[in-house]
Amino acid sequence: MMATERKIMKVLNGETVTPPPIWIMRQAGRYLPEYRATRATAKGFLDLCYTPDLAVEVTLQPIRRYGFDASILFSDILVLPDALKRGVRFVEGEGPRLDPITLEEISLLDPSGMHEHLAPVYETVRRLRGELPEETTLLGFCGAPWTVATYMIAGRGTPDQAPARLFGYRERAAMEKLLDLLADMSADYLLRQLEAGADALQVFDSWAGVLDEETFEAFCVKPVARIVEKVRAVRPDAKIIGFPRAAGALYRGYREKTQIDALGLDWTVPLSFAVELQKEGPVQGNLDPLRVVAGKETIRDGVDRILDALGNGPLIFNLGHGITPDADPENVGYMVDRVRGKA
Ligand code: CP3
Question: Rounded CA gap, 76 and 42, in Å?
Fold first, then answer.
């Protein structure tokens, strides 16, 4: 099968597919008992990411269960700072921890060994393309430079990423240097994923929503535009989904300025606004993940509203952010059936 015949690739080319194809962010994750079982056999979360046998297995688990239209490589956005030796570790029940970077350390960052470090990730992509059903789109991904930088600066996730925002105001030149370095590494990383067999890519800017208008342009739009330009310089046909989570009114213009193909929408984007954004090209989203936790009626209502508003244009159905560990796998099945007109 040609990659262009896969449903998600059609939508990324601007076609309307009915019913819309579906995948969900964090589809391989702790809400699935089979994920928890595989996770228990790995030494730690990063070992899971860097062991192709295990990473392939957990990537395939949600595809076996639900037949999603896309499979997303199992890895993490923090493998890039890990390749930069920033002391990335995942503390059980607390989330990621890194060594907070200092101004001086930014000039010393050395990406030269990144592809050796990330070789197991490329191997996972290669094996996945061989094992996935023909009709399933394989998505590669990276974190957007701003989001990755927020973790590198604070050394952890914080509610409003104040340490990185403050650093951006006080040390603008160093921040831009860090973002440029991460953008260049990300472009190389994504190109390797495409080479290894990824069909399309998603750039996760999970912390896009905490910036003011001026820093959003400088820290979110500009670095993502740089990634897209560098990837397309080598692969002019590369399809890229951009997800500037919680960008609110700043979603307007993001597609054009960054040249991404599809716009990922979080659940707070009003559907009337989403319709406007869809006039400019494909959109992805945007069911509140907590609707999946709440139960079937809540899911049905949310799914139907999205399909009514966006189903007649290019849409990739997804949640508005990652599924939470407390979601019932049966509810996920119901959501998929409802989107596909089978429930
Ligand atoms: O979506 C998928 O199924 C693919 C795998 C994937 C993971 N992380 C696996 C993961 C992807 C695409 C990511 C992206 C990611 N990682 C983002 C951007 C998207 C988003 O959620 O905002 C961010 C900000 C990270 C950084 C990160 N990784 C955090 C903040 C955490 C802890 C929070 C949590 O949910 O525990 C992680 C850990 C992580 N990444 C887990 C998984 C399945 C859970 C850890 C575990 O299993 O022990």
Answer: 15
Distance between CA atoms of residues 277 and 296, nearest Å: 28
Active-site residue flag, 30: yes
Distance CA 199, CA 125 (A): 10
Output the pTM of the full model: 0.97
Strands 283-287 and 262-264: parallel
CATH code of the domain covering residue 308: 3.20.20.210
Grouping H, G, I as helix, E, B as strand and the rest as coil, residue 242 is strand
Residues with Cβ within 8 Å of residue 206, at least 6 apart in sequence: 143, 147, 243, 245, 321
- In the numeric block, the tokens 């030796």 are attached to 85
Question: Is residue 73 within 8 Å of residue 139, measured between CB atoms?
Answer: yes
Query: How far is ligand 1, taken at its centre, from the CA of residue 77, in Å?
Result: 8
- Which positions of the chain have pLDDT values less than 50? none
Element of type H or E holding 286: strand 283-287
Question: By the 8 A CB rule, do 116 and 85 touch?
Answer: no
Domain that holds residue 101: 3-339
pLDDT of the residue at 2? 78
SS in 3 state form for 54-94?
HHHHHHHHHHHHHCCCEEECCCCCCHHHHHCCCCCEEECCC
Q: Which of 65, 77, 121 has most ligand 1 atoms within 8 Å of its beta carbon, as the pocket-test mutant?
A: 77
Query: Which residues on neighbouring strands pair with residue 243, listed in sequence order?
Result: 204
CA 26 to ligand 1 centroid distance, Å: 7
| 3-class DSSP state of 317 | strand
pLDDT at residue 1, rounded to an integer: 75
CA–CA separation, 194 vs 231, rounded Å? 10
The answer to whether residue 39 is catalytic is yes
Structure tokens at 274: 């989403």
For residue 240, give the amino acid letter.
I
How many domains are there within the chain? 1
pLDDT in tens, 311-322: 999 999 999 999
pLDDT of residue 3: 81
